[in-house]
Amino acid sequence: MAGRIRDEDIAVVREKARIDDVVSQYVTLRNAGGGSQKGLCPFHDEKSPSFNVNPSRGFYHCFGCGEGGDVITFLMKIDGLTFGEAVERLADKVGVQLRREEGDVREERPKGPPRRRLVEAHKLAQEYYAEQLASPDALVARQFLGQRGFDQAAAEHFGIGFAPRDGDALKTVLRQQGFSAEEMTVGGLIGPSGYDRFRGRLLWPIRDASGDTIGFGARRIFDDDRIDAKYLNTSETPIYKKSQVLYGIDLARRDIGRSSQAVIVEGYTDVMACHLSGVTTAVATCGTAFGDDHSRVLRRFLNDHEEFRGEVIFTFDGDAAGQKAALRAFGGDQNFVSQTYVAVEPDGLDPCDLRIQKGDAAVRELVARRVPLYRFVLANVVGKYDLDRADGRIDAVRETARLVASVRDQSKVTAFAQEISKMVGADIDTNAVLAEVRRAANRRPAPDPRGTTPAATALEPPPRAAVPDLRDPRFAIERETLQLVIQHPMTIGRSTGDIGPNDFLHPTYRAVWELVAAAGGPGAGAGDPGWANRLRDAATDPAASSVISALAVEPLKKEPDSAYVAEHVFRLLELTAARRIGAIKSKLQRTNPVEHPEEFNKMFGELAALEAHRRALRDRLAGSTT
After folding, report:
1. pTM listed for this prediction
2. Number of H helices, E strands in the chain
3. Which CATH class is domain 246-378?
4. Is the dihedral of CA 260, 264, 265, 268 positive or negative?
5. DSSP of 36-97, one letter per residue?
6. Sign of the CA dihedral 491, 493, 496, 497?
7. What does CATH list as the number for 473-624?
């Protein structure tokens, strides 16, 4: 069995793999000052960005959920990789040849083929299928594309391919490259029958945001295809989760981030038509309805938050299915901070057919003519009723009120009620609509605020002892001193000789300092680009590990110079002296000098020494800042 990767090679990978380049494949980052970048956290749902990346130090940290680490940790967390798999993937991207030590691998691998092997198999499959699109057997596939306005250049741009009707063709190719039957079947390339799952179909590679092929969408093109389904998509696999996959995200993600706009269409050919027409922010779900997980993926690339609102534009057919899809989208509307819109072509054409019949400009115009999603949905509901009748108007208000009652953002309710009043007209005013909304809200079952049943509540463990808040102002000097230790160990190293664990009142900050001391003190980090990683790797306490990543990315209040460093070190030591002075004074007040003269005199001597020590610290601080 291959041994562990050499430490020096891991260090080279960390140095060459820029963390901002890797993270930006999953999150849109914007400059946040102080050399840091900021975006929406990919590990928890949030409305305001608290996810920070510091490229110069190679660290990320979310101040909302506490996740943090280096570029290797990020890949492990976001893609479920082992340490070795994450290092291997990064090494491939930055061109580092990994060497291994003799002996067994020291990490436990998850059951089944590693992700790297599944991705490699899909990469080879995509390349093979793309080559087969030029074969004589793929004539029908090429005709299908041509009839929809897609030429060879378009096919190459989107990586479209053709799976030969011979069900053993792909299996033979992958076997020749050393892939096992397990790797082919677990990845979804070969079906349970042992044959190519997509044989005889036109194929669209489905890629993740980084550009890795993780699945396929396959279109039926032969009448004698034994599978009746028009589209056959990759099933759930370790690398393909349809609820989190968006077709075209690899091509659209950068423009989504730049323009803060995402266009959601219904099919692969619609994505192609939009991109070729100049709407390069278009994506589509893969055989499933647009859901909450899709929203979370898009929000990260939109950088969707209160201070920077963007646009999410849904395109629907004008038929009943399109209206149903719009209702589903309205139900998830509040997943976005961005404004949501609908773009519907008056003749009911989807973007692909629209491009064929009316050209590229018509597709761009479709998106430009978008209307607010709520207005589209409410108008469709109201349109079902005869508004010339009083009972029709009442029924229209009641149904739209039920929709508005589900809106969590109460600031929007009045505006929606005004829209409904205008649509229904006649004797229905805004107050009447609001009253119906309140009645609808009262009829909805109230959720348990704890999300538990009484029986479950009784089984809850007792609360854990509270740990002081790391942001408590009492610990500000401790935090800022450790920032200097982690970010500028060479600058502060010479000034920390008098610092010890007892100078840190917060237990987590004390644990971080103990890691620093065990590593040889701040001076040991001078000139070491992996200093913060070394400390974090040595941490066994998750809280200490999280704090190290936070301190590594958190901007300092100013660029450190000798006076700035001296101030923090001396103030930290002075606070310790002040705490000890206060403790001794309190004990002196409780000690009778007549009954315990020796103990009293000893404490009095300690107090005098501490007072002298504190004066000396102040004098040194004054001398260092003049």
Report:
1. 0.70
2. 27, 15
3. alpha beta
4. positive
5. EEEE--SSS--SS--EEEETTTTEEEETTT--EEEHHHHHHHHHT--HHHHHHHHHHHHT--
6. negative
7. 1.10.860
In Å, how far are 98, 373, 381, 383, 470 from 434, measured between CA atoms?
Answer: 66, 20, 17, 20, 45
CATH, domain range 7-94: 3.90.580.10
Q: Which two tokens stand for residue 51?
A: 């996810």
Report in angstroms the alpha-carbon separations of 608 from 446, 453, 587, 603, 605: 65, 60, 14, 9, 5
Q: Answer with the residue of higher pLDDT: 72 or 610.
A: 72
Torsion angle defined by CA atoms of residues 386, 390, 391 and 396, in that order, rounded to the nearest 10 degrees:
60
Sheet holding 30-33, edge to edge: 30-33, 36-39, 51-54, 59-62, 68-70
Sequential DSSP letters for 464-488: PPPPPPTT-GGGHHHHHHHHHHHH-
SS3 387: coil
Rounded distance between C-alpha atoms, residue 351 and residue 287, angstroms: 17
> What is the per-residue pLDDT across 119-128, written as a single tens digit (0 to 9) for each?
999 999 999 9
pLDDT digits (tens, 9 = 90+) for 564-590: 777 777 777 777 777 777 777 777 777
Three-state SS string over 203-242 comes to EEEEECCCCCEEEEEEEECCCCCCCCCCEEECCCECCECH
Parse the chain into domains and list their residue ranges: 7-94, 115-240, 246-378, 386-443, 473-624
